[in-house]
Design brief:
Distance between the termini: 14 Å
Bound molecules: phosphoenolpyruvate
Number of strands: 8
Order of helices and strands: EHEHEHEHHEHHEHHEHEH
CATH architecture: Alpha-Beta Barrel
Number of helices: 11
Largest sheet: 8 strands, parallel, barrel
CATH class: Alpha Beta
Radius of gyration: 17 Å
Helix content: 40-55%
Length: 252
C-alpha cells in the first residue's frame, strides 16, 4: 500500500524570516494531525535549507531542495552539489520541474545525469514531468510524458526506483489556477504506471508514488487525491500559506 505524500515547493519565495515563520506555523498545525500514512515535505530555497532542516528536526517533516547540479563538485559557479545538500541534512531533491526545463533549459540528458548523481548519493528524487498546453491541444500529451519518462528514467535499474517519486504536473495547470480534472490526472497517472509496468514489472509500477501538481488548493484537493493512482501532491502557490497547506495535507 503506497503512502501519501504532500510536498510544498516554495520556489523563489520566502526570505529567512518568512521561512522560519512558515515552518513554525506548519509544525504547530501538523502536531495535532494524525499522519501515520502521510509524508509531508517542504522545499525552501537553497539559502534557507540549513535553518529549516534545524527547525524540523524531530518532526515528521522532510526538507527537500528544489534543484541540484549533476557534477560531484568543481567549477560550476552558482551551483549546488548533492554532497552540499547532504551536509545540511537534505536528502531529497526535486528534479525536472517545468520551470527548470523552461527557464534553465534542463533537458532529458541533463536530468538523467542529475538523477544519477542524486541516486549515487542515496538521495530521494521527486521527478517532475508534464505536457504544455499546446501538447494537450494537439493530443500529444501522452507522447510527451512518455518521452520525458523514458529519456530521463528508463536507464534506471529496479532498485533505483525505490528512491524515485514522480510528480505529474501539466504545465498549463501550474500557477494558473487551472487544475486538471480529477479524471485527467487519473488517466495520466494510470498511463505512467502502465509504462513503468511494461518496462519493469507490475509490482514495481504499483509501488511507485505518483504525485499530482498544478493549482492544487484546499477546495480541489480531496477530489484530486481521491483518484486511485494519485498518491498526493506537489503544491506550489498554496504551500506558501500554512492554513492552505495544512488543509491540503488534511485532504490527502
Ligand atoms: C508547482 O510549481 O510545482 C506547482 C504545482 O505550482 P502551483 O501549485 O502553484 O500550480
Amino acid at each position: 500500500m503506497r503512502k501519501k505524500i504532500v510536498a510544498g515547493n516554495w520556489k523563489m519565495n520566502n526570505d529567512l524570516q518568512a521561512s522560519i515563520s512558515l515552518v513554525n506555523e506548519i509544525k504547530s498545525g501538523l502536531s495535532s494531525m494524525e499522519l501515520s500514512s502521510t509524508e509531508v515535505m517542504i522545499a525552501p530555497t537553497f539559502v534557507n535549507l540549513h535553518a529549516v532542516t534545524k527547525l524540523v528536526e524531530g518532526t515528521a517533516i522532510t526538507v527537500a531542495a528544489q534543484n541540484m547540479h549533476f557534477a560531484e563538485k568543481g567549477a560550476y559557479t552558482g551551483e549546488i552539489s548533492a554532497k552540499m545538500l547532504q551536509s545540511v541534512g537534505v536528502n531529497t531533491v526535486i528534479l525536472g520541474h517545468s520551470e527548470r526545463r523552461a527557464y534553465f533549459h534542463e533537458d532529458a540528458t541533463m536530468l538523467a545525469k542529475k538523477v544519477e548523481q542524486a541516486l549515487e548519493h542515496q538521495m530521494k528524487v521527486i521527478f517532475c514531468l508534464g505536457e504544455q498546453l499546446e501538447d494537450r491541444k494537439a493530443d500529444q500529451h501522452f507522447n510527451v510524458v512518455e518521452y520525458q519518462l523514458k529519456d530521463a528514467l528508463f536507464q534506471l535499474n529496479d532498485a533505483d526506483w525505490q528512491d524515485i517519486v514522480l510528480a505529474y504536473e501539466p504545465v498549463w495547470a501550474i500557477g494558473t489556477g487551472e487544475t486538471a480534472r480529477p479524471e485527467q490526472a487519473q488517466e495520466m497517472h494510470a498511463f505512467i504506471r502502465n509504462l513503468i509496468a511494461e518496462q519493469y514489472d507490475e509490482k514495481l509500477a504499483e509501488e511507485v508514488h505518483i504525485l499530482y501538481g498544478g493549482s492544487v488548493k484546499p477546495t480541489n484537493a480531496v477530489e484530486i487525491f481521491s483518484q486511485k493512482d494519485v498518491d498526493g501532491g506537489l503544491i506550489g502557490g498554496a504551500s506558501l500559506n500554512a492554513t492552505d497547506f495544512l488543509a491540503i495535507v488534511n485532504a490527502v
